[in-house]
Design a protein that fits this description.
354 residues, alpha+beta, 2 domains, six-stranded antiparallel beta sheet, three-stranded antiparallel beta sheet, 10 helices, 27% helix, S-layer homology domain-containing protein, signal
Length: 354
């Protein structure tokens, strides 16, 4: 599923408007079967935004098991995934990617989107399969974070009593979901990964995921750091008012040098420091590495490396001259405030300026 031919040249937005026949996401009548559901308010909020649908105008069926097709449609719709940036050479069909799909079904176009966004769905994907908590959690986290091995590298230990029941390739996603407040353990510390997930449970995870990605913030409660030298703007919570800037530099080391590693590239490292930081009680900085576009391209080609981490920095944004990146394992020691910084970074706070 990693390499696919794009199949037509018409505008994806024009041709692939999301079909919702039989599964309308924009219900207008309040659901009447949520009174005993703990996540009632979250489901109603999602309904009001047109992000979840019922089985009829007024019934959500919260305790019904989520099918694979419903799960994919829910993730695609809630996260706003689309094909606007893709041109095809001929009209795509769901069966181009998944043999068991039905091209006329309400879910068909969501499967096309999921395939082209590389959500990792297998070729033998069965739309009618009942999904487990593990399956839905893994797909949701892949859609949120991509194939990101930093799940495992940045997380503090999370004790899951029934960890032995979790498939190895889903463990990182489940741990990340718990850490980020998207999913939770029960009172006994179990996740129940192989239990079928209900529609209410899936909707609640979607709500929590959107809250994590887009934390509520009033524009007036924000502080902005603007760097005109390199051309970027970084939006901070108002609690960071009075921040300081720590200027340093990164160094790129040679690879495969018989004389030993030597510094072959360098650039600016700008750290935004919380106003409550002290030498006695340091807090997590927000570090930003600045690369020229040429330096960044050479780093991606492994012409030099930075630090000892097995992965390199991750791009935050760029302008015409510079790429701004987050160092690998920047919060490996988990200092005070590291989770707040991770939440800030998840809100896409950095923007290029000219």
């Amino acid at each position: 599923m990693n390499s696919r031919k794009k199949l037509f040249s018409l505008s994806a937005a024009a041709v692939l408007s999301l079909s919702i026949a039989g599964q309308s996401f924009a219900a207008t009548t309040a659901f009447t079967d949520l009174e005993q559901v703990a996540a009632k308010d979250k489901i109603i909020s999602l309904q009001s935004q047109g992000l979840v649908s019922g089985v009829s105008d007024d019934l959500f069926q919260p305790n019904a098991t989520l099918t694979a097709a419903q799960g994919v449609q829910l993730i695609v719709k809630a996260l706003g995934l689309n094909l606007n940036s893709i041109n095809f050479v001929k009209a795509p069909h769901a069966t181009d990617y998944f043999a068991k799909a039905n091209n006329d079904a309400w879910y068909a176009q969501s499967l096309i989107i999921a395939a082209n966004k590389d959500l990792g769905l297998p070729a033998d994907f069965d739309p009618n399969q009942k999904w487990t908590k593990e399956m839905f959690t893994k797909e949701l986290l892949v859609a949120l974070d991509g194939h990101n091995i930093m799940h495992m590298m940045k997380l503090p230990p999370i004790e899951i009593k029934d960890k032995a029941d979790i498939t190895l390739d889903a463990l990182g996603s489940i741990q990340a979901a718990i850490y980020k407040g998207i999913a939770s353990l029960d009172a006994d510390g179990n996740f129940h990964p192989q239990a079928e997930i209900t529609r209410a449970q899936a909707a609640e995870m979607i709500y929590n995921a959107l809250k994590y990605v887009h934390p509520a913030a009033n524009q007036s409660d924000q502080t902005v750091y603007e760097n005109t030298q390199y051309g970027f703007r970084f939006t901070l919570p108002d609690s960071w008012k009075g921040y300081t800037i720590v200027n340093d530099k990164w160094e790129g080391l040679s690879i495969g040098d018989s004389q030993g590693e030597s510094v072959v590239e360098s650039g600016a490292k700008i750290s935004i420091r919380h106003p409550a930081w002290t030498a006695e009680q340091p807090r997590q900085d927000i570090p930003i590495l600045v690369f020229t576009v040429d330096q960044w391209n050479e780093l991606q080609q492994d012409k030099f490396h930075i630090g000892a981490a097995p992965v390199g920095p991750s791009e935050l944004t760029r302008n015409d001259k510079y790429v701004f990146a987050l160092p690998a394992r920047y919060n490996f020691a988990f200092p005070e405030g590291y989770q707040e910084v991770e939440d800030i970074l998840a809100s896409k706070p950095i923007q290029p300026i000219s």
